[in-house]
Write the structure tokens for this entry.
Amino acid sequence: MSDHPEIDPAEYRRVLGHFPTGVTVVTAHDGDGPVGMAIGSFASVSLDPPLVAFFAGKQSGTWARIDKADHFCVNVLGDDQLELCSTMASRAEDKFEGVSWMAAPSGSPVLPDVIATIDCKTDAIHDGGDHWIVVGRVLHLATHREAGPMVFFKGGYGSFAPND
């Protein structure tokens, strides 16, 4: 008998869907060109040293390319960037077709009109079940514009407005 209770995956997803998350796109530039993936599991880890983390599915081909790059950039999406999010969440062969970008100091793509970017060097990768826990050491960070963040909640995208 397992010491872990049996959790129904559909119920797990439904319940955790009640926790809103911000939406980011993690980008990198490997030897074959720019690569990016939409991520809703991003967090600040440490101020000293400055570390962030995101969770990448072990089966993701996009993650395999980002992993080879050794650097990545977290692009924080605005609530008006659903089309860009959908492109980066797709399984398209070239997610950057028609997407302009500029290079972060590491060479990773900074996407157009994002709210903020966090440019990192991969610091550690830990096993997290069916995902990798990717820890990045922050090398450079910047805000680019004022806008509401894109939020993922209960299976859909929306926005957030703070109480003033």
